[in-house]
Amino acid sequence: MDDTLEALRDMGAEDAARVCQSFVENPTPETFEQYATTCIPFYAKNAYSAAELARCIQHPEVFLHYVANEMCEFDYLE
To answer: How far apart are the C-alpha atoms of 24 and 39, rounded to whole Å?
Structure first.
């Protein structure tokens, strides 16, 4: 997570870094909404269009569970 926050700050996105940290520390539907609006645009080299986002199948409850219970413990190498 530190790398993500540092990358956002390096891009001059201090507000996005603050929102990201808030979401990770307290993953709720409210903090997810702020995270989705403020941070997700930084995840793509070219910002997603409204049409592209509308085509995405979203399950925020799954992401909330992952952030709250798995993200800091998950070993991607296993």
So the answer is: 12
Q: Are 20 and 8 in contact (CB under 8 A)?
A: yes
C-alpha radius of gyration, the chain, whole number: 13
Looking at residue 40, the DSSP 8-state letter turns out to be G
pLDDT digits (tens, 9 = 90+) for 5-24: 999 999 999 999 999 999 99
The pTM of the whole model exceeds 0.85: no
- For residues 43 and 15, what is the distance between their CA atoms, to the nearest angstrom? 15
Quick one: tokens of 13? 């996105």
pLDDT of residue 50: 83
Q: What is the 3-state secondary structure (H, E, C) of 33-71?
A: HHHHHHCHHHHCCCCCCHHHHHHCCCCHHHHHHHHHHCC
